[in-house]
Amino acid sequence: MVLAAGEGKRMKSETPKVAHVAAGRSLVNWVLKAADGLGTGSTIVVVGHGADTVEAGLPSGTQTALQEQQRGTGHATKVGLEAVQGLDPDDVVVILYGDTPMLPPRVLADLARLDSDEALRMITAELADPTGYGRIIRDTEGRVVEVVEHADCTEEQLLIREINAGIYAARAGPLADSLESLTDDNAQGEYYLTDVVGILAGKGDRLTAVKAQAEEVMGINSQDELADARKSLQRRTNQALMDAGVWMLDPERTYVDDTVTVEAGARLYPGVHLEGSTTVGANAQIGPDVFAVDSTIGEGSRVWYSVLRSAQVGVDCEVGPYASLRPGTVMKRGSKLGTFVETKNTTMGEEAKANHHAYLGDAKIGARSNIGAGTVTCNFDGYQKHPTEIGEDAFIGSDTM
Ligand code: UD1
Ligand code: CA
Q: Is the dihedral of CA 118, 123, 128, 129 positive or negative?
């Protein structure tokens, strides 16, 4: 179960917090990706604030439950549990917060393997600066006895650096029972899921805490934390690409969405942004300074200082410097669009070239044709759009309208 109903006031944004994007995925979708690693079972996302926006961004078919009023993480969990049919009291419910995108699947695998006598297992971490997090209170024997939210801590408790990551695996039966006895008698007037820990410990149920790395469990509450998360997720994405044989001059300045495919041998220079469903073929050379969204770039092509939106660049093509390829641009093998060339809904035949200063809109350019500088396919007469067709081996001289 992923809790994603909160507003995220500290973001100061109209976009619901969990819908903010880092490295090509919303925060909640990163959490869902990690949860995929659990393999079996079903997933439910609790939505509420900005429910339409959040739901629209979820993978299609994701089950959701609506928490109409955001009355706290405990209340959200209750709403989620009520929406799940046919749970056995011994079933394990993994609860995650939609704002912890850095969670690696490995941490979850350990979490979900509860011993038969274990009621709850949770993730904690030691933070240099634990401000804002719930603190883990242990007894003299080191057993977890409760979680106290930052706002409810005594001076002494504020010094504790072990924090609650907001990641739990619990038996459905004891979880549902303890949710019933939550109260909102606390600093924030909310039903805290974290109080379940104290309730179960108080009953003498067995619960354990597993420590994770601080960075892995970081919760995103503000814009600067979002920027940190983006950096770290980008580093992880780039690491995976380099492990697979992609060359990067400077991974810190190479921005590739998690949804993009880059084949081994491709070379990415600084200032490259690859987004959406973009794919890059082997040995292509991209950048410096290229923005490409939902585009394909074929094997061996070179694209630099250019913008590509829903464009298809074939094998061994050349784009730029300073070209703008708008939606519907198709470049066949060996074709070229050079400096200050803009295209839209235009096909360049094999080895066709427009090397300098041209606008080609709603056009078909035949194989091997050469488009001279200052050529415009005047596709708009003020009322309607008109196509232009230029055959194979044509030579269009400079300054042709
Ligand atoms: C929570 C924990 C805190 C922990 C921290 C870890 C509680 C009470 N506190 O604090 O111990 O250290 O996470 O990151 O659980 N949400 C709902 N419905 C609500 C309220 C929240 O779905 O009514 C969702 C939010 O969308 C968010 C998640 O629950 O994804 C956590 O809520 P948030 O307000 O960020 O909790 P924290 O104050 O960070
Ligand atoms: Ca949080």
A: negative
